[in-house]
Amino acid sequence: MNEKKYLTWYNKVGYGSGDMAGNVVYALLSAFVMIYLTDTVGLKAGVIGTLMMLSKFFDGFSDLIFGALLDKTQTRMGKARPWMLWAFIGCTAMIIAIFAIPPSLGDTAKYAWFFITYTLLNAVFYTANNIAYSSLTALITKNSSERVQMGSIRFMFAFGTNLLIQTVTVEGVRLLGGGAEGWRIIAIIYALLGLAVNTLSVFSVRELPPSELLETENEEATKAAEKVTLRESGKMLAANKYYLIILIVFVMTQMFTATLNMGIYFMTYILGNANLLGAFAWAINVPLIVGLLFAPAIVARFGGMYRVNIVGYAVAVAGRSGVIVAGYMGNLPLMLLFSGVASLGMAPLQGTLNALIAEASDNTFLRFGKRIDGLMFSCTSLGVKIGSGVGTALAGWLLDASGYVNPTDAIPEPDQPHSVIAMLYFMYLWIPTIANAIILALLWRLDVEGANERLRAEAEQTADEEPGRDKEFQRVQE
């Protein structure tokens, strides 16, 4: 049976461009906030890491709260789009504030400034924007192929933005005056660009009416589904093992990215050239973008996401293992080559993550007859923030523990001790490989598509045997 199509190319590209806005925030923070705070503001990496971890306690609550609020939202714009639109204004203000810490403040005040702005950005504004944006995958189409296409296009924009920021930021800061002034101006430019693109993305799509999303014309059923309490939603969420697996996958993916983004320290102190970050950005992101371009066709060819993702991550683990060997050999071309191989293997999962969450949301509906899309998609924001926060904090703690010498404390700039060099090898080479291996193990248990097919078959059989019972499940086949 051919699935109904809901989206035009404009809707798909418009939706996907929204991740450019999100990655203006994410890529700038994950790749550069630590080195900005240590080498420009003069703060200690270990303290910064601790503050990031404390901030995540607030994030853990806010993800569930905003997910539940989104499920209860009803406006002319829909459930998700109002949150996505207005929350990014706060993101714009906070990303500028983080990179505009006044030099005249004392160290305690600088730490407080960072903690408050970082927490507001992540726990409030980025949470609301990102959950809403991710939820649109399930709210603007019910077509599984379109969901995969949306995920691929989305992450093409995401990795393209990441590539751009990692390539131009170091030189951009220098051209804009360097130091605190350069960081402040670059943050303003990126934040305003993100605001413009986010607004465009919001108005490029429309949400489906609730009756169509619930796949029933029964008004009473629709109203009942909208009255799901937070406690009921939490129970259904905890009962969905696929949600929990995807959440851990998100955490490990962001741990991978956060520690890999510490590469600017690796380039500076081991390879001797901070601008090599741009070369590695190209080696990592271009294969990802190419892989994402072909991901929908590959998934369609092999009839599902499960096997494609497992094979892809087996390649990714092999590629990152090659990076380890090349790194210790000091062979830069081989490091770049194996980084590209690993990224190509990671591409299918990156392109299908949102579609997998939508399938997990369908799994809850098939089992309980109720939709909790907003809460279900909270795993994207929750996983991103826990993973990136833990990864960046871990990097800060490890740097501090290894004896990292802050350049603001020594003139001329210091040579780092052997313990720091050894730690940078571990952080940049080993931790990403370990994270990928854990993800591969998790993917073996993530056959949510197969589980949903079985539930649909059981529902259809029950409906045939007992006419009139649970008729709404018959429409899940459509």
What's the structural blueprint in terms of helices and strands?
Layout: H1 9-39, H2 45-72, H3 81-98, H4 107-139, H5 144-175, H6 179-202, H7 210-213, H8 219-226, H9 230-238, H10 241-260, H11 263-269, H12 276-301, H13 306-329, H14 332-368, H15 373-376, H16 378-402, H17 418-443, H18 448-465
Helix pairs in contact: 1-3, 1-4, 1-5, 1-6, 2-4, 2-16, 3-4, 3-6, 4-14, 4-16, 5-6, 5-12, 5-14, 10-16, 10-17, 11-17, 12-14, 13-14, 13-17, 14-18, 16-17
Question: Summary?
Answer:
By secondary structure, the chain is mostly helical. The protein contains 18 helices and no strands. The chain is 78% helix and 0% strand.
Give an account of the 3D structure.
This protein is an all-alpha fold. It has a single domain (12-446), classed as Up-down Bundle (Growth Hormone, Chain: A). Helix content is 78%, strand content 0%. The protein has 18 helices and no strands. The protein has helices at 9-39, 45-72, 81-98, 107-139, 144-175, 179-202, 210-213, 219-226, 230-238, 241-260, 263-269, 276-301, 306-329, 332-368, 373-376, 378-402, 418-443, 448-465. Helix 5 (144-175) packs antiparallel against helix 12 (276-301) and helix 10 packs antiparallel against helix 17. The chain is globular and about 75 Å long. 52% of the residues are buried. Residues 216-222 and 469-478 have low confidence and may be disordered.
